[in-house]
Amino acid sequence: MALSAKDINENTRWQDLTDGLQIYEPATSKNFLTGEWRTNTPVLDQEKCRNCLLCVPYCPDSSIPVKNGKRLDFDYDHCKGCGICVKACPFGAISMKEGK
């Protein structure tokens, strides 16, 4: 069983990390927890968020889930921490913190 990105730290053995760059069939990318690569983490300020969803199409990893027209918290198992969402948010509701 793959570890969640929040369970990965400097003491994690390399054998326990998700294999990367090995997709042999379609629709399997959700099986690879690429969030473990992240060095910076996006943080959502719910009070500033206007739920405009402008950040969603900018995320290259589809790590901003939407349900019933509402933005949910980040999918940290797949977010690589690129910070594009920070630039896309016109309300300053997303910031980056160092680390996971």
UniProtKB/TrEMBL annotation:
Q: Could you confirm whether the keyword Repeat appears in this record?
A: yes
Transmembrane regions: none
InterPro entries (UniProt xref): 4Fe4S_Fe-S-bd, 4Fe4S_Fe_S_CS, PorD_KorD
Which keywords belong to this entry?
Answer: 4Fe-4S, Iron, Iron-sulfur, Metal-binding, Repeat
| Domain 4Fe-4S ferredoxin-type: from-to ranges | 40-69, 70-99
Which molecular-function annotations from GO does this UniProt entry contain? Answer: 4 iron, 4 sulfur cluster binding; metal ion binding; oxidoreductase activity, acting on the aldehyde or oxo group of donors, iron-sulfur protein as acceptor
Q: Which cofactor does it need?
A: [4Fe-4S] cluster
Q: Does the keyword Signal apply?
A: no
Query: What would be one Pfam family of this protein?
Result: Fer4_21
PROSITE patterns cross-referenced by the UniProt entry: 4FE4S_FER_1 (PS00198), 4FE4S_FER_2 (PS51379)
What name appears for this protein in its UniProt entry? 4Fe-4S binding protein
Organism placement in taxonomy = Bacteria, Bacillati, Bacillota, Clostridia, Lachnospirales
